[in-house]
Every structure is written in C-alpha cells, then in structure tokens.
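Structure in, sequence out. Go:
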C-alpha cells in the first residue's frame, strides 16, 4: 500500500477560485451574488465523517452553480451533528444513525430527518502482497476484533479465505475511538451472524461506541482509522468505503446472508439500498446484511437533520433548495466517490420531508 498516495487521497481537497479551497471540514469561499441576483447566505452544518467526501464534492458543485450560497460542513462525527442540531448551533446536521426518540426529545423543536446518501463500510487491511478480495466471514471477523486470532497466517483465516500462504504477520485490529455509524454497522453485522460476538460483548443491541475498545487500536473518525491502516502493516479496520476507495485500500470480500463473498463497490452497495428502500424510515433504518447474492452486507444510509420550523425563511428555503439538489443532481457524483445513488423511492421520501419545512409562523415554505 502506497502511504503517500493514501494520505494524499484522504485530504479531499477540491479547488475553488484562486486562494480558496474546500478541504475536509472546511468550505469557506467568499459569498458572491449569483448572476447579479440573490442574497448571500451561509449554511453551517456538522456531523457524520463518512459522508464528507460526497458532501464536499456536491457542496462545491452547488456553490459553483449558486455562488451566493456558502456551505460550511464540519465532519466531526455523527454525535456532533446530533448535539449541534439539539443545541441549534448549525443549520443542518448529519448522522448515519437517525435521531432516536430520546435524542429528539432534547431538540428545540421538530427535527426532520431525510436520507441523502447511500454508502458502505469497507473492511480494509494492509497485508503486504495480499490483494483486495480476501474472503472474511462474521465469525472470523469477530475473532479478529475479539483478539482471538492474532496472526494473518492463522489456520482459522486460511480455512475461510482459501489462502494458505498469508504472511506470519501480527494482526492489528483498528476501531473507531469516537462513536460512529460504521462501528454500529459492523457491530450489527457481527451480532446477526456471530453468537460468539454476542456472548463476548454481552449484548445483542448494536452500539455507536465500539464495544470492545480495549482490543486493538482506537482512532478518531474515518480519516484516523484510514491513516492508521495505511501506516501499519498487519492492520485491519472498518472505514467508510468512500475513504477506502480514495486511499486505494485493499478491502475484504465479506460473506453476506446469501452465502456469497462480496467486496464493496457502488453496485453492491446499491443492491442493499434497493432491497431496503420500500421499508425505509428514520425508525426502520437498518439495512445490514440485506438479501441477494450480489449485495454488500455492510451498507447504510446517511441522514440529514434540520428543523421543521425555521426562524429565518431565507435559511429555510436555502436548505430546501440545497438538499433537493443533493438528493437529485448531486447523486450523479455518488458512484465515482464510492457511494451509490439513492433509490427513487428514497428520493421521494426525502422530498416529502423537505416539503414539511415551515417558517416561524408555521406556514409551509415553498422553494
């Protein structure tokens, strides 16, 4: 694995005009009038790190089209997106796990939650000489993250992978040190498919906080996990596929509910979204290990959070227009960045949510 290429890919810098750029967590171009009309407006957001490569590209494109709108997004993690929305310090938040009733109870009003992105969690590894597609199933992954399988040439790994020549190299499992959607996704997959994992963690309820934090190494955000994997031969960890694709990582083919081993790709993630689309809601969001021979089992939607009642009507309309663009035209960028376009029924679900945005008097806004 080329460390220099991996780290450079993670910078996610997209050029704007001279002297400005959009980097991970920064989008601060000077607000300008669009074609001589339209008031300058700034929309601040914070939340999931996993969606950041997609947001940065789409927000950049939107600013190029509507230069009076400046969008600042801080990819500090889903928990920050939730807390910032609760406190009313941002115009929008984002979380891979929608806000539950207990979270919504702490908000300053009704929060709309709309799916804006369909992604996946890659199981990335740095094993010199071993290409992508190493087969791994839930019991083997569970044993790795429990610290029971400690070397890559373990017979337990060889039995699943069919590879008998893996190196005598220590395994370094890497997890998220902060609460995260990808951690929830992998935890849920292991709960569904490994009784030993449930016994070891003592619960069948997935957690955004990694349940076995004392095993292996913890790093902050997708970028931290990705950087550690890149720098550490023998490392294996979970990272949003968009980051893994940008960094050129080698990724496991993970066993799905149909018994097939599937590597992450936009098309395999798309299959998971299509199977789950009809039943999707903010209270029924779990799309882990959906059926289908070609379905990648570690997939997820990312949810944007915004208040239904907007104190400033201009901000409310700007949010409606921005996220209508994100869920429609913006989806054209998805596949090349390691995500899948939203299914049409999910686009309709998000449009329905955006149609509920109101002004301070409770009147529906029209974008």
């Amino acid at each position: 694995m080329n460390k220099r290429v991996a780290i450079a890919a993670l910078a996610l810098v997209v050029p704007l005009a001279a002297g400005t750029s959009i980097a991970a967590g920064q989008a601060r171009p000077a607000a300008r009038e669009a074609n001589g009309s339209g008031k300058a407006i700034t929309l601040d957001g914070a939340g999931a790190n996993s969606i950041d490569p997609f947001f940065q590209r789409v927000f950049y494109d939107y600013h190029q089209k509507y230069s009076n709108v400046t969008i600042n997004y801080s990819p500090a993690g889903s928990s920050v997106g939730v807390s910032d929305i609760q406190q009313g310090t941002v115009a929008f938040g984002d979380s891979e796990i929608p806000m539950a009733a207990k979270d919504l109870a702490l908000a300053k009003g009704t929060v709309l939650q709309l799916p804006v992105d369909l992604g996946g969690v890659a199981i990335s590894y740095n094993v010199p000489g071993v290409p992508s597609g190493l087969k791994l199933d839930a019991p083997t992954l569970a044993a790795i993250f429990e610290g029971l399988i400690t070397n890559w040439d373990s017979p337990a790994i060889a039995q699943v992978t069919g590879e008998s020549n893996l190196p005598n190299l220590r395994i370094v499992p890497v997890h998220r040190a902060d609460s995260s959607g990808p951690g929830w996704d992998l935890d849920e997959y292991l709960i569904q498919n490994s009784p030993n994992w449930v016994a070891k963690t003592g619960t069948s309820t997935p957690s955004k906080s990694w349940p076995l934090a004392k095993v292996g190494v913890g790093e902050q955000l997708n970028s931290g996990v990705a950087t550690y994997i890149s720098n550490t031969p023998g490392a294996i960890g979970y990272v949003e596929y968009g980051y893994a694709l940008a960094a050129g990582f080698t990724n496991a083919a993970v066993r799905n509910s149909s018994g097939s081993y599937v590597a992450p790709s936009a098309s395999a993630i798309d299959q998971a979204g299509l199977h789950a689309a009809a039943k999707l809601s903010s209270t029924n969001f779990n799309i882990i290990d959906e059926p289908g021979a070609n379905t990648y089992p570690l997939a997820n939607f990312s949810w944007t959070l915004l208040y239904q009642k907007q104190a400033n009507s201009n901000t409310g309309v700007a949010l409606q227009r921005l996220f209508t663009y994100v869920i429609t035209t913006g989806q054209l960028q998805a596949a090349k960045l390691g995500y899948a376009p939203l299914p049409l029924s999910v686009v309709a679900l998000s449009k329905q949510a955006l149609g509920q945005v109101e002004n301070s008097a409770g009147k529906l806004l029209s974008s």
